[in-house]
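Whether sequence alone determines local backbone shape is best considered at the level of individual chains. When preparing material for the folding task, we compiled for one chain both its residues and its backbone structure tokens. The sequence in question and its structure tokens are set out directly beneath this paragraph.
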Amino acid sequence: MPGAPGSTFLNNMATMEGGDVFANGKAEITISGASMQGAAAAADGGSIAISGNSTLVLTATTVSKASAINRRGCIGVTENATLIMVRSAASGCSTSNGVAGGIGVQDTATVILDNSNVTNNIAGTDAPQPAAAGGIAADRRSKVMLIDARVSGNKAGFGGGLFLMGEASLVTEGSNRITGNTAGTCRVYGFWGCMHGWGSGVSDRT
């Protein structure tokens, strides 16, 4: 999916948030053609954590194999921040104890996935109880927009593909594929006919 080779972020670590990138206070960042692999954060946002009205645009970039002990294994987007992914991917990330193996968005933040993939992420690998959202978690009036996107192969206790609560919203355009996600028991609504296991589509707790 990514295009020409660009910057490489490899095996970076943070004692709190964002092993590769941390942005706050109305920061504006654009990353193109990059490979971001193997990052880790002791708290949230294994590879990337953005908040405080900041904006991050990822184009032809792959975020992969990142991990967070708490939440948001690949990318965390909070506090009115905006993440735009174009022809990019968040893949193979995980959380040890918390929600959102792939991307976590909350506190009126926005995530837009344009022709991008969220795949093969796992939430709560070491959690004593099932964690939510293998792929994407949205909470507290946040917004997720999918445009010709793919969310597949993600695993969690609740909402294998996507998990929405707290007045979060989901908007879809084009041809999206939410398939092959797996989860444990939960209150679940089948989404686009995708029911490859409990919670494989969208789980909505309001």
User: Anything to note?
Assistant: The radius of gyration is 15 Å. The chain is about 0% helix and 40% strand. Residues 185-200 have pLDDT under 50 and may be disordered.
